[in-house]
Amino acid sequence: MDRILITGALGQLGSALQKVFYDKGVFVIATDIRDCPKDIECQYEKLDALCQDDLLNIVKKYEINVIYHLVAILSAKGEKNPFRSWKINMETFQNIIDVSIKCKIKKIFWPSSIAVFGKGSNLKYVPQNTFMDPTTVYGVSKLAGEKLINYYFDKYKLDIRSIRFPGIISMGIKPGGGVTDYIIEMLHASKKGEDYTCFLDKDKRLPMVYMEDAISAIISIMSVERSKLSISSSYNILGFTTTPEEFQLAIKSNGFNIAVNYKADYRQKIANTWPENLDDNLAKKDWGWSPKFGLDETIKVALSLQ
Ligand code: AKB
Protein backbone atom coordinates (compact mmCIF):
# COMPACT_ATOMS: atom_id res chain seq x y z
CA MET A 1 0.00 0.00 0.00
CA ASP A 2 1.30 3.43 -0.94
CA ARG A 3 1.75 5.96 1.87
CA ILE A 4 2.30 9.21 0.01
CA LEU A 5 4.00 12.47 0.94
CA ILE A 6 3.62 15.52 -1.32
CA THR A 7 5.89 18.53 -0.94
CA GLY A 8 4.78 21.85 -2.44
CA ALA A 9 1.25 20.53 -2.06
CA LEU A 10 -0.38 23.97 -2.08
CA GLY A 11 1.01 24.88 -5.51
CA GLN A 12 -0.77 24.53 -8.86
CA LEU A 13 0.12 20.87 -9.44
CA GLY A 14 0.22 19.85 -5.77
CA SER A 15 -3.30 21.10 -4.98
CA ALA A 16 -4.74 19.07 -7.84
CA LEU A 17 -2.67 15.97 -7.08
CA GLN A 18 -3.40 15.76 -3.34
CA LYS A 19 -7.10 16.04 -4.08
CA VAL A 20 -6.94 13.17 -6.57
CA PHE A 21 -5.22 10.91 -4.02
CA TYR A 22 -7.56 11.96 -1.22
CA ASP A 23 -10.64 11.31 -3.37
CA LYS A 24 -9.31 7.85 -4.27
CA GLY A 25 -8.89 7.04 -0.58
CA VAL A 26 -5.10 6.75 -0.84
CA PHE A 27 -3.11 7.65 2.30
CA VAL A 28 -1.62 11.09 1.58
CA ILE A 29 0.11 13.79 3.63
CA ALA A 30 0.22 17.21 1.99
CA THR A 31 3.09 19.45 3.05
CA ASP A 32 3.99 23.00 2.17
CA ILE A 33 5.81 25.96 3.68
CA ARG A 34 2.54 27.76 4.47
CA ASP A 35 0.19 27.32 7.45
CA CYS A 36 -2.48 24.68 7.08
CA PRO A 37 -5.26 26.06 4.84
CA LYS A 38 -8.79 25.86 6.26
CA ASP A 39 -10.28 24.09 3.27
CA ILE A 40 -7.78 21.24 2.83
CA GLU A 41 -9.31 17.76 3.14
CA CYS A 42 -6.29 15.49 3.47
CA GLN A 43 -3.82 15.46 6.38
CA TYR A 44 -1.42 18.39 6.32
CA GLU A 45 1.97 19.21 7.85
CA LYS A 46 3.70 22.56 7.54
CA LEU A 47 7.17 21.79 6.15
CA ASP A 48 10.11 23.78 4.86
CA ALA A 49 11.67 21.13 2.63
CA LEU A 50 15.04 22.87 3.07
CA CYS A 51 15.06 21.45 6.61
CA GLN A 52 16.13 17.83 6.22
CA ASP A 53 15.47 16.91 9.89
CA ASP A 54 11.85 18.04 9.66
CA LEU A 55 11.42 16.17 6.40
CA LEU A 56 12.93 13.01 7.92
CA ASN A 57 10.64 13.26 10.96
CA ILE A 58 7.51 13.50 8.82
CA VAL A 59 8.61 10.59 6.61
CA LYS A 60 9.23 8.45 9.72
CA LYS A 61 6.13 9.60 11.62
CA TYR A 62 3.75 8.65 8.78
CA GLU A 63 5.77 5.67 7.48
CA ILE A 64 5.90 7.22 4.02
CA ASN A 65 7.00 5.02 1.12
CA VAL A 66 6.28 7.22 -1.95
CA ILE A 67 7.17 10.91 -2.39
CA TYR A 68 5.96 13.51 -4.90
CA HIS A 69 8.44 16.36 -4.63
CA LEU A 70 6.83 19.41 -6.22
CA VAL A 71 8.64 22.30 -4.51
CA ALA A 72 10.07 24.70 -7.12
CA ILE A 73 10.59 28.33 -7.99
CA LEU A 74 9.41 28.63 -11.59
CA SER A 75 11.18 30.15 -14.58
CA ALA A 76 10.30 33.85 -14.53
CA LYS A 77 10.21 34.26 -10.75
CA GLY A 78 13.49 32.35 -10.50
CA GLU A 79 15.31 35.02 -12.50
CA LYS A 80 14.55 37.64 -9.81
CA ASN A 81 16.81 35.84 -7.32
CA PRO A 82 18.81 33.08 -9.01
CA PHE A 83 20.82 32.12 -5.90
CA ARG A 84 17.72 31.62 -3.80
CA SER A 85 16.02 29.75 -6.67
CA TRP A 86 18.93 27.36 -7.06
CA LYS A 87 18.96 26.75 -3.31
CA ILE A 88 15.25 25.99 -3.14
CA ASN A 89 15.12 23.90 -6.30
CA MET A 90 18.27 21.87 -5.69
CA GLU A 91 18.74 21.64 -1.91
CA THR A 92 15.17 20.47 -1.36
CA PHE A 93 15.67 17.85 -4.08
CA GLN A 94 18.92 16.66 -2.48
CA ASN A 95 17.13 16.48 0.90
CA ILE A 96 14.42 14.32 -0.63
CA ILE A 97 17.05 12.04 -2.16
CA ASP A 98 19.04 11.76 1.08
CA VAL A 99 15.94 11.01 3.19
CA SER A 100 14.66 8.59 0.54
CA ILE A 101 17.89 6.58 0.64
CA LYS A 102 17.85 6.56 4.48
CA CYS A 103 14.18 5.54 4.69
CA LYS A 104 14.15 3.17 1.71
CA ILE A 105 11.46 5.12 -0.15
CA LYS A 106 10.28 2.93 -3.01
CA LYS A 107 9.38 5.62 -5.59
CA ILE A 108 9.74 9.37 -6.05
CA PHE A 109 8.08 11.66 -8.60
CA TRP A 110 9.85 14.86 -9.53
CA PRO A 111 8.68 17.21 -12.30
CA SER A 112 11.14 18.54 -14.83
CA SER A 113 10.21 21.13 -17.45
CA ILE A 114 10.56 22.22 -21.06
CA ALA A 115 12.85 24.89 -19.54
CA VAL A 116 15.70 22.34 -19.77
CA PHE A 117 15.93 23.07 -23.49
CA GLY A 118 17.59 25.99 -25.22
CA LYS A 119 18.39 27.43 -28.61
CA GLY A 120 20.54 24.41 -29.52
CA SER A 121 17.69 21.94 -28.91
CA ASN A 122 15.95 22.10 -32.32
CA LEU A 123 13.09 24.15 -30.89
CA LYS A 124 10.68 23.61 -33.81
CA TYR A 125 10.38 19.96 -32.80
CA VAL A 126 12.45 18.93 -29.81
CA PRO A 127 13.44 15.24 -29.72
CA GLN A 128 13.42 13.25 -26.46
CA ASN A 129 17.21 13.18 -26.40
CA THR A 130 18.86 16.33 -27.61
CA PHE A 131 21.41 18.98 -26.84
CA MET A 132 20.24 21.00 -23.83
CA ASP A 133 21.35 24.55 -23.10
CA PRO A 134 18.87 26.10 -20.65
CA THR A 135 18.92 29.85 -20.18
CA THR A 136 17.17 30.28 -16.82
CA VAL A 137 18.32 29.19 -13.37
CA TYR A 138 15.08 27.18 -13.21
CA GLY A 139 16.01 25.36 -16.43
CA VAL A 140 19.57 24.78 -15.24
CA SER A 141 18.28 23.34 -11.95
CA LYS A 142 15.82 21.07 -13.78
CA LEU A 143 18.60 19.81 -16.07
CA ALA A 144 20.87 19.20 -13.06
CA GLY A 145 17.98 17.33 -11.41
CA GLU A 146 17.55 15.13 -14.48
CA LYS A 147 21.25 14.24 -14.33
CA LEU A 148 20.94 13.46 -10.60
CA ILE A 149 18.01 11.11 -11.24
CA ASN A 150 20.22 9.09 -13.52
CA TYR A 151 23.16 9.26 -11.12
CA TYR A 152 21.21 8.10 -8.05
CA PHE A 153 19.55 5.34 -10.02
CA ASP A 154 22.97 4.01 -11.06
CA LYS A 155 24.50 4.44 -7.63
CA TYR A 156 21.67 3.45 -5.25
CA LYS A 157 18.92 2.10 -7.54
CA LEU A 158 16.79 4.99 -6.27
CA ASP A 159 13.60 4.98 -8.36
CA ILE A 160 12.87 8.62 -9.31
CA ARG A 161 10.40 9.13 -12.16
CA SER A 162 10.07 12.38 -14.04
CA ILE A 163 8.20 14.25 -16.76
CA ARG A 164 9.26 17.42 -18.59
CA PHE A 165 6.10 19.46 -18.24
CA PRO A 166 5.04 22.07 -20.76
CA GLY A 167 2.80 24.89 -19.47
CA ILE A 168 0.10 23.28 -17.29
CA ILE A 169 -3.36 24.80 -17.72
CA SER A 170 -5.78 24.78 -14.79
CA MET A 171 -8.38 27.10 -13.30
CA GLY A 172 -7.73 26.32 -9.64
CA ILE A 173 -4.60 27.49 -7.83
CA LYS A 174 -2.63 29.82 -10.07
CA PRO A 175 0.97 28.79 -10.85
CA GLY A 176 2.72 32.09 -10.08
CA GLY A 177 6.01 32.89 -11.73
CA GLY A 178 6.09 30.90 -14.97
CA VAL A 179 6.53 32.00 -18.57
CA THR A 180 3.51 29.93 -19.62
CA ASP A 181 1.23 31.61 -17.02
CA TYR A 182 -0.16 33.99 -19.65
CA ILE A 183 -2.58 31.32 -20.80
CA ILE A 184 -4.18 30.96 -17.37
CA GLU A 185 -4.30 34.74 -16.91
CA MET A 186 -6.05 35.03 -20.28
CA LEU A 187 -8.65 32.44 -19.28
CA HIS A 188 -9.39 34.20 -15.99
CA ALA A 189 -9.61 37.60 -17.69
CA SER A 190 -12.04 36.25 -20.28
CA LYS A 191 -14.26 34.74 -17.59
CA LYS A 192 -14.37 38.06 -15.77
CA GLY A 193 -14.98 39.93 -19.03
CA GLU A 194 -11.78 41.95 -18.56
CA ASP A 195 -9.18 43.06 -21.11
CA TYR A 196 -5.85 41.32 -20.88
CA THR A 197 -2.29 42.50 -21.49
CA CYS A 198 -0.19 39.56 -22.65
CA PHE A 199 3.51 39.54 -21.73
CA LEU A 200 4.44 37.38 -24.76
CA ASP A 201 4.25 38.21 -28.46
CA LYS A 202 1.06 37.10 -30.14
CA ASP A 203 2.80 34.55 -32.36
CA LYS A 204 4.97 32.88 -29.70
CA ARG A 205 4.17 29.17 -29.93
CA LEU A 206 4.66 27.03 -26.82
CA PRO A 207 3.66 23.50 -25.76
CA MET A 208 0.86 23.13 -23.19
CA VAL A 209 -1.04 20.42 -21.33
CA TYR A 210 -4.36 20.50 -19.48
CA MET A 211 -4.19 19.67 -15.75
CA GLU A 212 -6.29 16.51 -16.02
CA ASP A 213 -3.86 15.12 -18.58
CA ALA A 214 -0.88 16.23 -16.46
CA ILE A 215 -2.28 14.32 -13.48
CA SER A 216 -3.03 11.22 -15.52
CA ALA A 217 0.54 11.36 -16.87
CA ILE A 218 1.89 11.39 -13.31
CA ILE A 219 -0.35 8.52 -12.25
CA SER A 220 0.64 6.49 -15.33
CA ILE A 221 4.38 6.94 -15.01
CA MET A 222 4.22 6.18 -11.29
CA SER A 223 2.12 3.03 -11.83
CA VAL A 224 4.14 1.36 -14.54
CA GLU A 225 6.74 -1.29 -13.75
CA ARG A 226 10.20 0.21 -13.56
CA SER A 227 11.48 -2.23 -16.20
CA LYS A 228 9.18 -0.54 -18.77
CA LEU A 229 11.04 2.78 -18.42
CA SER A 230 13.77 2.85 -21.03
CA ILE A 231 15.37 6.02 -19.65
CA SER A 232 16.20 7.12 -16.11
CA SER A 233 15.94 10.85 -16.66
CA SER A 234 12.77 12.68 -17.72
CA TYR A 235 10.12 12.17 -20.43
CA ASN A 236 8.81 14.76 -22.93
CA ILE A 237 5.02 15.06 -22.98
CA LEU A 238 2.70 17.29 -25.01
CA GLY A 239 -1.01 18.10 -24.91
CA PHE A 240 -1.09 20.64 -27.75
CA THR A 241 0.77 23.73 -28.92
CA THR A 242 -0.64 27.22 -29.21
CA THR A 243 0.21 30.89 -29.53
CA PRO A 244 -1.42 33.69 -27.50
CA GLU A 245 -3.29 34.86 -30.60
CA GLU A 246 -4.58 31.38 -31.47
CA PHE A 247 -5.66 30.94 -27.88
CA GLN A 248 -7.43 34.31 -27.88
CA LEU A 249 -9.30 33.34 -31.08
CA ALA A 250 -10.26 29.97 -29.62
CA ILE A 251 -11.64 31.69 -26.51
CA LYS A 252 -13.70 33.96 -28.76
CA SER A 253 -15.01 31.08 -30.82
CA ASN A 254 -16.25 29.53 -27.57
CA GLY A 255 -18.44 32.55 -26.94
CA PHE A 256 -16.25 34.60 -24.56
CA ASN A 257 -15.31 38.08 -25.57
CA ILE A 258 -11.75 39.06 -24.79
CA ALA A 259 -9.61 42.00 -25.91
CA VAL A 260 -5.89 41.33 -25.65
CA ASN A 261 -3.08 43.88 -25.83
CA TYR A 262 0.35 42.53 -26.56
CA LYS A 263 3.24 43.99 -24.59
CA ALA A 264 6.16 41.57 -24.46
CA ASP A 265 8.47 41.83 -21.46
CA TYR A 266 11.56 39.93 -20.21
CA ARG A 267 9.59 36.67 -20.32
CA GLN A 268 9.53 36.80 -24.13
CA LYS A 269 13.31 36.36 -24.17
CA ILE A 270 12.97 33.21 -22.06
CA ALA A 271 10.11 31.88 -24.21
CA ASN A 272 12.32 32.31 -27.30
CA THR A 273 14.61 29.62 -25.90
CA TRP A 274 11.79 27.10 -25.27
CA PRO A 275 10.31 24.49 -27.63
CA GLU A 276 7.52 25.27 -30.07
CA ASN A 277 6.70 21.60 -30.32
CA LEU A 278 8.21 18.35 -29.12
CA ASP A 279 8.36 14.61 -29.63
CA ASP A 280 6.59 12.67 -26.87
CA ASN A 281 6.58 9.26 -28.55
CA LEU A 282 8.82 7.65 -25.95
CA ALA A 283 6.32 8.50 -23.18
CA LYS A 284 3.57 6.97 -25.33
CA LYS A 285 5.58 3.81 -25.92
CA ASP A 286 7.05 3.29 -22.42
CA TRP A 287 4.11 4.12 -20.14
CA GLY A 288 1.11 4.76 -22.33
CA TRP A 289 0.97 8.57 -22.35
CA SER A 290 -2.25 9.46 -24.13
CA PRO A 291 -3.54 13.04 -23.75
CA LYS A 292 -7.29 13.66 -23.98
CA PHE A 293 -7.34 17.45 -24.07
CA GLY A 294 -6.41 19.37 -27.20
CA LEU A 295 -6.76 23.15 -27.52
CA ASP A 296 -10.52 23.13 -27.99
CA GLU A 297 -11.31 20.57 -25.26
CA THR A 298 -9.09 22.52 -22.85
CA ILE A 299 -10.81 25.82 -23.53
CA LYS A 300 -14.27 24.30 -23.27
CA VAL A 301 -13.62 22.61 -19.95
CA ALA A 302 -11.62 25.52 -18.46
CA LEU A 303 -14.26 28.09 -19.34
CA SER A 304 -17.06 25.97 -17.99
CA LEU A 305 -15.46 25.68 -14.53
CA GLN A 306 -16.43 28.00 -11.69
C1 AKB B 1 7.09 27.87 -16.31
O1 AKB B 1 6.56 28.58 -17.18
O2 AKB B 1 8.10 28.21 -15.66
C2 AKB B 1 6.53 26.49 -16.07
C3 AKB B 1 7.23 25.46 -16.86
C4 AKB B 1 6.97 25.34 -18.30
O3 AKB B 1 8.01 24.73 -16.33
N1 AKB B 1 5.13 26.50 -16.34
Attribute tags:
single chain, 306 residues, alpha/beta, 6-stranded parallel sheet, 3-stranded parallel sheet, 11 helices, 41% helix, binds 2-amino-3-ketobutyric acid
Write the layout of secondary structure elements.
Layout: E1 3-7, H1 12-24, E2 27-32, E3 43-46, H2 52-61, E4 66-69, H3 75-78, H4 82-102, E5 107-109, E6 112-113, H5 137-156, E7 160-161, E8 163-165, E9 167-169, H6 182-192, E10 196-198, E11 206-210, H7 211-223, E12 235-236, E13 240-242, H8 244-253, E14 260-262, H9 266-271, H10 281-287, H11 295-304
Parallel strand pairs: 1-2, 1-4, 2-3, 4-5, 5-7, 6-8, 8-12, 9-11, 10-14
Antiparallel strand pairs: 11-13
Describe the structure.
With about 300 residues, the chain is of the alpha/beta class. Helices cover about 40% and strands about 15% of the residues. The longest helix is centred in the first third of the chain and has 21 residues, at about 80-100. The model has no long low-confidence stretch (mean pLDDT about 95). The structure holds 2-amino-3-ketobutyric acid. 2-amino-3-ketobutyric acid (AKB) binds next to loops.
Please tell me what the overall shape is.
Answer: globular
- SS summary, helix count: 11
Give the termini separation: 35 Å
How large, in whole angstroms, is the Cα Rg? 19 Å
Secondary-structure-derived class: alpha/beta
Helix and strand run: EHEEHEHHEEHEEEHEEHEEHEHHH
Which segments are poorly predicted (pLDDT under 50) over 5 or more consecutive residues?
none
What's the average pLDDT? Answer: 97
Helix % is: 40-55%
Report the sheet with the most strands, covering strand number, pairing sense and barrel closure.
6 strands, parallel
The count of β-strands is: 14
